User: Fold this.
Amino acid sequence: MNKYLNKRVRDISIKNDSDVNAIFEQMSDSGGFVSKHLAEGLQIMCDMVNDKQCFKFVSFVGAVISTGLRGVIKDMLRLKVFDAVITTCGALDHDIARNYSNYYEGDFRLDDKKLADNKIHRLGNVLVPMDSYGPLIENKIQKLLRNVYRDGKKELATYEICEMLGKSLNNSSFLHWASKNKIPVFVPGIMDGAVGSQIWLFAQKHRDFKINLVKDSDKLSELIFDAKRTGALMIGGGISKHHTLWWNQFRGGLDYAVYITTAPEYDGSLSGALVREAISWGKVKRRAKQTTIHGEATTLLPFLFAAMLKKLKMHA
Assistant:
């Protein structure tokens, strides 16, 4: 038999009583474009979570925290599915803003000039009242930094800032659960957002106050080099994805990797790069269980998480 023709495509059959795992199992045999990679991603995530000697990272872009996917990420940290977070400043901004205020459903096609007249920011099809963002974050961060400075802490790593933030937020927050479960949150690009701007403003009047990114690196190196194996779920690209891959190259690469992206590969961007490209850089091991899932994370991740909970018999 031809070596290429060893697994035939099977039709997916959905019944009234089909559950999410039954559908995922059929998707793995469907030969069907992204569905096959989605099913692979589920199996890799389950293998990674079941591996008790695997240190697990989750990385994500800030924009997803403006959406309902914040609840899925929060629950993943509440259930201690992951051991460390790598994200962007925007994730902190949205987590704080939504802790104290509301975002609203909008539309991609709204008139942005009219929204600006009404003091509303648009993030895709999510609407963010201006008062719920900049002024609110300024008030909360300046108060936090004043208290920290008063306590004599004048040099902080980003994971220490995130831990302090988490202690001040309620249980709808991913930072709250990361702090409660002692899961460090690293923000390599912390100056690129509202929280970072408030840190800069605070430092204008307190010139001895510093963000210590080297301390972040020290902590990451401890976690990486102490790990028997490592794995990562990477939600979107950019600095959060790259920082996850970058640090894992120092131990020979990730053993498990699932990447969800909408970015195309052909422009050479990091966000579009498939996980397997990282093998050539030593950031993912040659024999790693890895896949790239092309699709939009707020659509795909809830189904992946639901199927994983059921498959691993985890209670949310």
In short: Residues 33-100+134-311 form a domain with the Deoxyhypusine Synthase fold (CATH 3.40.910.10). The chain has one domain: 33-100+134-311.
